[in-house]
Amino acid sequence: MKKTTTFTILLSFAIMLSACAMQPPRVPTKNVTPQIATEVTLVTHDSFEASEDVMKQFEAEHGIKINILKSGDAGEMLNLLLLSKDAPLGDVVYGIDNTFLSRALKGNIFSTYEASALADIPDDLKLDSSNQLLPVDFGYVTINYDINWFAENGVTPPTDIYDLIKPAYRNLTVVENPATSSPGLAFLILSIGRFGEEGEYTYQDYWRDLKNNGVLVADGWSSAYFGQFTVGSGGEGDRPIVVSYATSPAAEVFFNDLDEPPSASVNTPGNSFRQIEFVGILTNAPHPHAARKLVDFLLSPTFQEDIPQHMWVYPANSKADVGELFKQWAEIPVAPVQIAPEVIATRREAWLEVWTDIMLR
């Protein structure tokens, strides 16, 4: 009995060794890295522009393709983002500005991301302490005027938005509708910050005086600048004053290959409004890792230095060089009007309703 048992055990052991010898050797297992997304979608407004070479640099460095989804102006884009909250249109959003900031944050559609580049962005541009929306660029809405027109007609150029209601400037100004235009809304907010909602002379009085002085209202910036402004239209327009940007004179030099700009902006205290644009990652972004990589890139000097001559605003990153054209011709306004984003969010619709009653009804 004992011998049989011993033989059986030895036979079983021999069979087991033979079976193991017939199997291929096992390869030691390693930690498996999650697959990185090969694409990322950037949702932005229609004015977004960037160098193809710069965007391809990101794609080459990270192996991630950037899909750009333009979605109207900032207001239209935000509406789409809120409606698609549970099935986001993309991963990263570029172009929500400080006139829509509070509304965007209230919608709970962005994730917190404290990008390392925040250390290089001035504190006065950081309007969201939760770091859901990070400053990416800024610009100044102000009035621009045709230098030659005023010289040829012997009229002193405006130095203040209050000048626009004076008889000497009758029928000279074109503005944008704040309900359909980002700079139009910025100019309305500028007038509110300047003249207030209460007192002897309010923003409502200002707009009534503008209307009585023959101001023209265009639907958007393009129709105002290229359709009505004497400079932007190449002389086809008949309005030598337009609501535009402090960087518009530099753009004229660049696009028309000029030695000096044909227009100037009014950059005196209390006559401009600073627009700050933000970038953020959508809460339910399908490619969150790639989204963080893209945000880092958009805030890096590489992309930031591409901003001035493509979107004609200033880079948020203080280490980014704005270039010689901006240094020479894009004067930064002094003491722009500022209104807190939460106040704008609370009062925006009421302001637009009042403006519409005064100007269009």
SSE blueprint and pairings:
Elements: H1 2-22, E1 39-44, H2 52-62, E2 65-70, H3 74-83, E3 92-97, H4 101-106, E4 110-111, E5 134-146, H5 147-153, E6 173-176, H6 182-195, H7 203-212, E7 216-218, H8 221-225, E8 241-245, H9 248-256, E9 263-265, E10 273-282, H10 288-298, H11 301-304, H12 308-311, E11 314-315, H13 324-329, H14 341-360
Parallel strand pairs: 1-2, 1-3, 6-7, 6-8
Antiparallel strand pairs: 3-10, 4-10, 5-8, 5-9, 5-10, 5-11
Radius of gyration from the alpha-carbon trace, in angstroms: 29 Å
The computed structural class is alpha/beta
Quote the average pLDDT. Answer: 90
What's the number of domains? 2
What is the 3D shape? globular
Q: Number of helical runs?
A: 14
Structure report:
With 361 residues, this protein is α/β, with parallel strands linked by helices. It folds into two domains: 39-139 and 275-329, D-Maltodextrin-Binding Protein, domain 2 (3-Layer(aba) Sandwich), CATH 3.40.190; 140-273 and 335-360, D-Maltodextrin-Binding Protein, domain 2 (3-Layer(aba) Sandwich), CATH 3.40.190. Helix content is 38%, strand content 17%. The chain is built from 14 helices and eleven strands. Strands 1, 2, 3, 4, 5, 6, 7, 8, 9, 10 and 11 form an eleven-stranded mixed sheet that branches. Strand 1, helix 2 and strand 2 form a beta-alpha-beta unit. Residues 1-34 have low confidence and may be disordered.
